[in-house]
Amino acid sequence: MPPSDSASDGFAVLEETARTWRPDDVRTTDPLDPAPAAALSAVLDLPAPAAADGEPLPPLWHWLYFLSWPRRSALGADGHPRDSGFLPPLPQRRRMFAGGRLEVAAPLTAGRPAQQHSRVSRVVPKRGRSGNLLFVTVRSEYRQDGRLCLTEEQDLVYRSGGAPPVPPAAALDTESRPSAGTSPWQQEWRTDPALLFRFSALTANAHRIHYDTPYTTGVEGYPGLVVHGPLLVLAMLELVRREQPDRPVRTLSYRLNRPAFCGERLLACGGPEPGGGPDDTVRLRIASHREDAHAGADVGFA
Q1: How many other β-carbons are positioned within 10 Å of the β-carbon of residue 82?
Q2: How far apart are CA 69 and CA 65, in angstroms?
Q3: What is the 3-state secondary structure (H, E, C) of 34-100?
Q4: N or C: lower Cβ tally within 10 Å for the chain?
Q5: 166 falls in which pLDDT band (50, 70, 90)?
Q6: How many whole angstroms separate alpha carbon 131 and alpha carbon 169?
Q7: What is the percent of the chain where pLDDT is above 90?
Q8: Does 63 have pLDDT greater than 50?
Q9: Which of 46, 3, 12 is nearest to 160 (CA)?
Q10: How far apart are alpha carbons 260 and 225 in whole angstroms?
Q11: Which one, of 43, 35, 13, 5, lies nearest residue 196 by Cα?
């Protein structure tokens, strides 16, 4: 069946955006105060701060830094910014965080200033099964003391117009447990509204799907508060810090597949592939009774 005129028009808007949208690069400096790292350690219920002054930040904990705090009047009805340099100019724009990659030349050190240089490196329109989508890749480099430490790419997906792409959902099940399977590394994990609220505050994330239940269920159509994708990724990486604390992470790729909801029983699990050598990639995932992999990650070591 050929696409409808409205669908064709919508894809044309995405094509034009991909062709003409060239946002300016963003450069930011942050002192990397150890306090946010100590706060996230408490939010994750760790026994001590993961990084004190002068110590290396764990992989992706730079997400606590280089934050943007737009004025309240600059936020949309969903709590997300209405406009910014890296948000494509689309009508009725909806954003999804799809995944990303990280290369670690050296970890950032808490308590010493670092510089971030971010740019949009790729913009691609695609026709998906659920509608037309715009894929945007943001590439960031992080330097400290003049040295390139981290190179990160984040893949963001945008939809223009229409209702939220949320399928009808059954009642939220907070009792069923995920299957443990045969993964050598396992950590049961449950979320609550306080955890999500505190993580939103630490990452300057005002999107209402993470803390406003009436909005989340009544407007967006989810069965409950949505667990942050970055929080799922960090929960997976805690397995690596627990099981192999002395192995420096050099490469990381992660995918966000399906949303997890507050209160569900989750399992962070994974480990080295069976029969693999010590340098093989570790494969991780977040499972529930509904999904084998709400999120997944591959971690490589030095």
Answers
A1: 13
A2: 11
A3: HHHHHHHHHHCCCCCCCCCCCCECCCCHHHHCCCCCCCHHHECCCCCECCCCCCCCCCCEEEEEEEE
A4: N
A5: low
A6: 19
A7: 77
A8: yes
A9: 12
A10: 9
A11: 43
Q: Examine the pLDDT at 274 and tell me if it is beyond 70.
A: no
DSSP assigned state of 220: I
Q: 190 in helix, strand or coil? A: strand
Residue the block writes with tokens 């939010």: 43
**How big is the CA angle at 143 (ends 248 and 27), to the nearest 5 degrees?**
135
Distance from C-alpha of 274 to C-alpha of 269, rounded to nearest angstrom: 14
Q: Which of 198, 188, 195, 191 is nearest to 174 (CA)?
A: 191
Question: Angle 155-243-104 (CA atoms, 0-180°, nearest 5)?
Answer: 40
Q: In the beta sheet, which residues pair with residue 286?
A: 268, 295
Provide the pairing of β-strand 131-144 with 114-128.
antiparallel
Measured CA to CA, the distance from residue 228 to residue 43 in angstroms comes to: 13
DSSP 237-276: HHHHHHH-TTS-EEEEEEEE-S--BTT-EEEEEEEEPTT-
Distance separating alpha carbons of residues 221 and 128, to the nearest angstrom: 21
Average pLDDT, whole number, for the chain?
A: 91
Strand residues in 145-205 grouped as ranges (E)? 147-160, 185-190
Quote the tokens at residue 261. 């909801």
Q: How far is CA 215 from CA 18, 121, 208, 271, in A?
A: 31, 33, 7, 37
Identify the three-state secondary structure at position 201: helix
The label of the residue with tokens 């009508």 reads 91
Q: What are phi and psi of 250, to 5 degrees?
A: -115, -35
Q: Is 22 helix (H, G, I), strand (E, B) or coil?
A: coil
